[in-house]
Design a protein that fits this description.
alpha/beta; 434 Repressor (Amino-terminal Domain); Endonuclease, Chain A; 2 domains; 6-stranded mixed β-sheet; 12 helices
């Protein structure tokens, strides 16, 4: 085809989305105008998304899924494109997290997003803006993603969620006492759900702690394993189950060393009452 722009899906998440859109369109022999008619937009809009000149909105991605019969494949991929202000690797984690049947979290220093109240997430976001780490738009994007992730795990049937919080997550004050009181209440409510296990890893575990950095281990519907860990500048998603298994073993050891659920909830309750 004359003037047909070559696409490099490795260039960016937007390029990967556009390349997949074009590939499926070519498979069906549709022109951009014909696909646009099926999706309720113009052929020029299709061209702009395919070539990366326009980012796909959630509505555009959902329309593409309906046109191609791809379930929610395009919609999930579009999140990676839109969440450009997030650390590398994290958008991919969110996509896998929304489909996982088991979620295992270990967090240090801060309550994990899946358990944060809106006020707690907002306080963290405001702090990044004040310190110049993120723009207001990026902070708002991250706050909205917290709500999106929490909504994705409220599905039927819900995933099993195992959470181990380092004691530092509870002792680090975020916002005022009322904000922390509400956050502690949220943790206690989470611990009472039938599909969750919440534990605290106290400081006195000492050298028996098998891991020191935050980590996420996901079990997918086909029982494959995915892990996610991050440094200060980037995240790494590991999809090789054989490579994840040792991490899962460490997580089970961490659970054995952590406080049982009842004792963990009791510790949180004492902190909420102001009597550590």
């Amino acid at each position: 085809m004359v003037n047909r722009k070559e696409l490099n899906p490795e260039q960016s998440p937007g390029a990967a989305f556009g390349a997949r859109l074009r590939s499926l369109r070519d498979e069906r022999g549709w022109t951009q105008d014909e696909l646009g008619e099926r999706m309720g937009c113009s052929g020029a809009h299709i061209s702009a998304v395919e070539t990366g000149r326009r980012k796909p909105t959630q509505q555009f991605a959902a329309s593409a899924d309906r046109a191609f019969g791809t379930g929610d494949r395009f919609e999930r991929q579009s999140r990676t494109v839109r969440h450009r202000g997030l650390i590398e690797g994290f958008p991919e984690l969110v996509n896998h997290e929304a489909r996982a049947v088991e979620i295992r979290l270990y967090e240090v220093g801060v309550i994990p997003g899946l358990l944060q109240t809106h006020e707690y997430a907002s306080a963290l976001g405001d702090s990044t803006v004040k310190r110049g780490v993120a723009s207001r738009e990026q902070a708002d994007e991250r706050i909205a993603l917290v709500a999106q992730r929490q909504a994705s795990i409220a599905r039927t049937p819900p995933p099993l969620i195992f959470v181990v919080l380092d004691e530092s997550c509870l002792l680090r004050p975020i916002g005022d006492s009322a904000l922390m009181d509400a956050q502690f209440t949220r943790l206690m409510e989470f611990a009472e759900l039938p599909n969750t296990v919440l534990q605290v890893a106290p400081f006195d575990i000492g050298v028996r702690r098998p891991m020191t950095l935050p980590v996420t281990v996901l079990t997918m519907p086909d029982r494959s394993l995915v892990s996610y860990a991050e440094s200060a500048s980037r995240g790494h998603l590991e999809r090789d189950s054989a490579s994840v298994l040792p991490l899962l073993t460490d997580y089970h050891q961490l659970q054995a060393e952590a406080l049982p659920r009842a004792a963990s909830v009791a510790m949180i309750s004492q902190l909420r009452k102001g009597s550590p």
